[in-house]
Amino acid sequence: MQTATSSTSVSNKNVVDVLNDLLETSRDGEYGFRACADEVDSQQLKTVFRERAASCATAANELMEAIRACGGKADEGGSVAGALHRGWVHVKGSLGADSALSMLEECERGEDTAVASYRKALKQDLPAQVRELVQRQADGAQRNHDQIKALRDEMRSRKS
Known about the structure:
Blueprint: H1 4-39, H2 43-69, H3 80-95, H4 99-122, H5 128-159
């Protein structure tokens, strides 16, 4: 039989796991947007990518605070998939062909992953304060996705 204390710590562990998954997603986004900013020639896109990287860094800091508040320890670094994604961004950037469009396409793929991660997290049983944070960040990830998609569509229409 579990006591209230052990039940709470299991619950907190689950919440911390969810938050750490989102932390990894946020770090991947930050690093990915920075990689794109480094590779693209367009000043407008450099600015957009740097702003999105800063937004992801802010989200990561908020998640680390929430993890600590739940009695957990924040995981270090991003994911292997995120590292591979950034490597692909650098390869595409070095090839130079349709660099801006390629960077936008890669960013949109990354944002698809982020939106899916937040949707998965919101299906979990989360305390009200944590759910509010996750929902706010999920809304931000969706806005990032929509902005990147709109820029990508605009660039595709210019190429046609």
